[in-house]
Amino acid sequence: MAQYVFSMNRVGKIVPPKRQILKDISLSFFPGAKIGVLGTNGSGKSTLLKIMAGLDKEIEGEAIPMAGLNIGYLPQEPQLDPTQTVRESVEAGMGKVFAAKARLEEVYTAYGEENADFDALAAEQAELEAIIATAGTDSEHQLEIAADALRLPPWDANIGVLSGGEKRRVALCRLLLSKPDMLLLD
User: Fold this and answer.
1) pTM > 0.70: yes or no
2) What is the largest CA-CA distance in the chain?
3) Which residues of the chain have pLDDT under 50?
4) What is the DSSP letter of 92?
5) Residue 121: its pLDDT value, please?
6) I need a labelling partner for 57 at 20 to 30 A (CA). Which of 46, 89, 111, 120 fits?
7) How far, CA to CA in Å, does 3 sit from each of 36, 42, 53, 87, 124?
8) How far apart are CA 110 and CA 116, in angstroms?
9) Are 91 and 157 in a shared domain?
């Protein structure tokens, strides 16, 4: 039998002054499952997703993600930096890759220094190249495809002037580019 990627056992949530939001929820998800949660306004759907994302830990029962599971969560109202451009915000989803590329350039430069520790530099180079390789060969192309697929505003548009729907698409694009193992969309 396949291992569950996420399990909840008898989860409950009470908020002051004793309002029960969730009661005795038990769920388990197999890898690749696509689940929708339906309910009326105020029934606890957002609370459930926040618990699953690990953002709300003040619960009864237990919520257990599989070890090493990378969970991506998109709230109803994503919080983006209004001073950033669309491109800057989206690139944050691939931040680890872009940081690795920048550091790799520094490592290449360090090889030319007089007292360079070639063994340490080679080890760091291998780690950085592995990070970059897992993202694919052309991260710039991935950015362009994702932006086009989600019909994002122009790269140089400022986040602060976007509509709510445009901001949500920017946040979704950034989240998808981070390649989460489990995606929670509120």
Assistant:
1) yes
2) 67
3) 1
4) G
5) 92
6) 89
7) 20, 32, 19, 38, 34
8) 6
9) yes
**5 exposed, middle or buried (CB, 10 Å; 0-12, 13-18, 19+)?**
middle
Q: What is the pLDDT of residue 133?
A: 82
Q: Domain limits at 170?
A: 86-179
Domain co-membership, 119 together with 167: yes
CA nearest neighbour of 170 among 85, 99, 95, 50 = 85
pLDDT at 137: 62
Is the distance from CB of 128 to CB of 87 less than 8 angstroms? no
Length of the chain: 186
Place of tokens 């592995």: 130
What total number of domains does the chain contain? 2
- Domain ends where: 40, 69, 98? 69
Contact between 91 and 143 (Cβ < 8 Å): yes
